[in-house]
Amino acid sequence: MLILDVLSPLLLLSIVLPGYGCWAADIPEDTTAEFSVRLYHQLQVAGGQENIIFSPLSVAVAMGMVELGARGASLGEIRQAVGFSHLLPGVEFSLLQNLTAGLLDDGARYVIRLANSLFLQEGITFNPEFLHLMRKYFRADVETVDFSESAAVADQINTWVENHTESQIRELLSAEDFSSVTRLTLVNAIYFRGSWKNQFRPENTRTFSFSRDDGSEVQTLMMYQQGDFSYGEFSDGSQEAGGVYQVLEMPYEGEDMSMMIVLPRQEVPLATLEPIIKASLLEEWANNVKRQKVEVYLPRFKVEQKIDLRSTLQELGIKKIFTSDADLSAMTDGKDLYIGKAVQKAYLEVTEEGAEGAVGSGMIALTRTLVLYPQVMADHPFFFVIRSRKTGSILFMGRVMTPEVIGLNDNDFDSM
Ligand SMILES: *[C@@H]1O[C@H](CO)[C@@H](O)[C@H](O)[C@H]1NC(C)=O
Ligand SMILES: *[C@@H]1O[C@H](CO)[C@@H](O)[C@H](O)[C@H]1NC(C)=O
Q1: pLDDT tens, residue by residue, 310-330
Q2: What domains can you pick out in the chain, each with its CATH number?
Q3: Protein residues with CB under 6 Å of any ligand 2 atom
Q4: How much of the chain exceeds pLDDT 70, in percent?
Q5: Separation in Å, CA 143 to CA 157, 179, 330, 386
Q6: Counting ligands in written order, which one lies closest to the CA of residue 159?
Q7: Which atom of ligand 1 lies closest to the CA of 91?
């Protein structure tokens, strides 16, 4: 008989705070795109009409950290689900290391900080090889704490998180998340900020109606520019007129990293398009968009989400590490460890330049009757990915169902 009380929960967290950026050269191809898309579909099923934002790369890194300590079927489930099963055993750690090292390289044009930390229970002996590999592959800080002092531990970890996210993510954990049976907590934080290669001019931003999928309308600040971007029109395979959707790729400075925006027709809800999204389709979009002049209307948006990774990962087949069948015996001797909690918090803010700035009033000369270039009018829900063009690594994936809503009182210029 198994007595759950004697098992030792672990807490796995990953916190993400973005902006925009780019990648360095000589990094391998990411193999986790299918995993990323499957995560998205899980969140979509659970998400109703809400915005979605998460970092697939951050989940892959956090899973890599757990995988280092896993053996047997627990190890096999992670390799299978994340997309490492075709690699020789252990190669994925070098892959994740190289992918993140590629991210951290350079730095003049964007800010990126990726930090991993491991909080261990005092008095428990952890396998030195595990700690060595955590430092080697994930550059993890290792600290010893007493989880039975749950309020003090929550404070300490929250401070660490704040300190690695430019204070944007606060109070992530509370005392209730820890107890005298907690043995280990992994925290993964990413901070990322950059600029569009072609910035939007704040004076072209103005109030605009955004039509949500439920038919309601909200007022938002719509950014505008006309410029050279990669653009394409694709069909969902149906013969219907509504089956054609637009894909716009907007690069960040350095051009290694870009945001792809996928927009169905105005009358088509995003939910109609979402089921066809696959890893191979992301590639197809990236390979088939063509550079041309485009008129872009994109709302400013701020999306934030805290995800219970435990239930999401279980749906994707990573089950054992969360149960009494967990085999994390590469971390400590014995088999009494399991993952008690797994959380990711992600936040993304998209503005004219990449940093919040004042919005001036202004006029956009609208030439609806004389449109010479394709117009991408994101005045209804859309899907997006922020992705490395070199490796295919997906830093962020999400959807905007409701952008930043402004009250009528904030609105001192005319609606279009
Ligand atoms: C990671 O980079 C190192 C050093 O360049 C290289 O030897 C190794 O093969 C790379 N690993 C993968 C999985 O690409
Ligand atoms: C916060 O980060 C700075 C610089 O990285 C470091 O010197 C400082 O000790 C950190 N503080 C805490 C509480 O972790």
Answers
A1: 899 999 999 999 888 899 999
A2: 7-194+302-349 (3.30.497.10), 202-300+355-408 (2.30.39.10)
A3: 159-160, 163
A4: 84
A5: 10, 17, 19, 32
A6: 2
A7: 13
